[in-house]
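User: My instructor asked us to take a sequence, write out its structure as tokens, and then describe one feature of it. I'm not sure where to start. Here is the sequence I was given:
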Amino acid sequence: MFTLTEVSKSYGGRTLFEDVTLTINRTDRLGLVGPNGAGKSTLFKLILGQEEPTTGLITSQRGATVGFLPQESAPVGEQTVLELATSHLEDEDGYGSFDGTLVAKAKRILKGLSFRDTDYDRPARELSGGWVMRAHLARLLVQEPDLLMLDEPTNHLDLETLLWFQEYLVSYPGGIVLISHDREFLNHLVTGILEIRGSALFDYTGNFDSFLEQRAAREQQQLAAFKNQQREIARLQEFADRFRAKASKASQAQAKLKQIARMDRIDAPQAAAATVDFSFPQPDQSGQRVMTLRGLDFAYGSHVVYRGLEFQVERGERTVLVGPNGAGKSTLLKLLAGVLTPQAGERDVGLKVKIGYFSQYRSEMLDSSRTVMEEVFDTPRLVRETDVRALLGCFLFREDDVKKKVGVLSGGEKSRLALVKLLLDPPNFLLMDEPTTHLDMGSIDAVIAALSEFTGTLIFISHDVYFIRALATKVVHVNAGRLTPYAGGYDYYLEKSKAVNARAALTSGLQNGRPPEAPKAVASAPAPAKAAPSKADTRSQRERKEQNAEARRQVSAQRKLVSGIEADIARLEERQAALTQELQRPETYTEPGRAVALNTEMRQIAAEIGAKTTAWESAAGRLEYLEREAAD
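Assistant: Let's start with the prediction itself. The structure tokens for your sequence are:
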């Protein structure tokens, strides 16, 4: 649909990329990656015709439609959410008229993006920036343009909405080109990667993991070829230097120099772009019990979020909060941080606990009127300017960057600045809400590396599955004011929550005396009278009855096996709940060694539940197979 031929783009003497040649087809699923500032968004603007290339040509297929979602601040007028989702761009002044034929589709997509039915008639201008972006995303999905161009589309999505969006795009009928720092999202969706690096565009096939492997192999090959050529150049140059002064060898020496001049030089592999380089200063150790919430009530006006909330945090835990949008994850984080005050209940902070809160909205943590340097010096600790400048340099704030006003910083720069402030006054209980938003992949890797070495306690919210998998050792699912803990990482949570849902469905079916989703019997007309059966027919009927009886016996035995495993899991889960309650009691920690013993048993219980769940899945699968065979 689009072809770029030898395209270059420069700003004020700085070349972002040059001689880019690229074709985008209707079936392409491409991820555009590269460090912040490499020119990804600029390349989008060139394709969209919002900017002109410095050199080169961009052509498009006649009639091809394009939908674009910017990273930030899409326009909104006086429409309701539903009207915006069903509108189309008419001209530069605003969006077009309401299209009633798309209402059903728009509502389905809005619901997938976590809008409620009551939101449809709300004026879109009343929404926060993130929800406005979701409404515009819905508009693009309703329109289904031939090519979707998405700039960091997951920034404003919670984890569950992201997973819905990811699956929706898998079956999208057009082409997709997206900029994203979310590796799992790219791995799940794209079939090709475009990398902007060192003013060049490199094209790779496969998903993001495949791209990393291919790039590493290409760099190794390039390095080997570069070294071989440098050795050959050195050999030829040495011959020329040694013999150019000798008359008998002068012509040969000149020949060697000409050979060097004719070589097509191989460049050394380009060094990786600068990324954040830091580690958390290890804080003073807190007590074993970091924080306890007892009987907390919290509501926004008439909207009740929590009623009688109980929650305990232990030292050294790395917990991720997951759950649908609006379930109360950010509210829980703010209650823990003391940013919000509950209407009832008790918030008990443990011994020597020092809290650090990293807000999803970086503007809440920073003063936009200050310079970077002024903002950093606003810390309870006394710090030297040389130390501050060194730390800012690690976070890519160099030279005149420290004089910039906070208000003009990009999203990534604000995230890095907020991290600097945390490092200058390190907490031992760190609460982070979407810490990877606006960070590039190198910076995300640096944050993961630093938090992996962090000796304090961490609770965070993230929609980045790669980030979650790298850090979380515990998952708490938040939904409708209820907290469900999972004593394992993200993959354990997925396995366990899936098994619980499947087990509930199967148990419901068994209680009804039939397997789940079994077809209802259909009455048929009476069969016509048949002749008396022969001896062979009688023997065959007897064998079939015996086979049916054996099938029923196997089904009955398998049902007992499944029920037995379910009973074991229920018993283990009851013990797990009892242990959790005991660990939440302050008196538990007055008995020496009691908390350690309880935590050890908790880990053993979690391992047993995992093993039993695996056995249940196998047994339940066998039961479904036997039931199908018996039905046939």
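For the description part of your assignment, you could build on this observation: The chain has 17 helices and 20 strands. Try explaining in your own words what that tells you about the chain.
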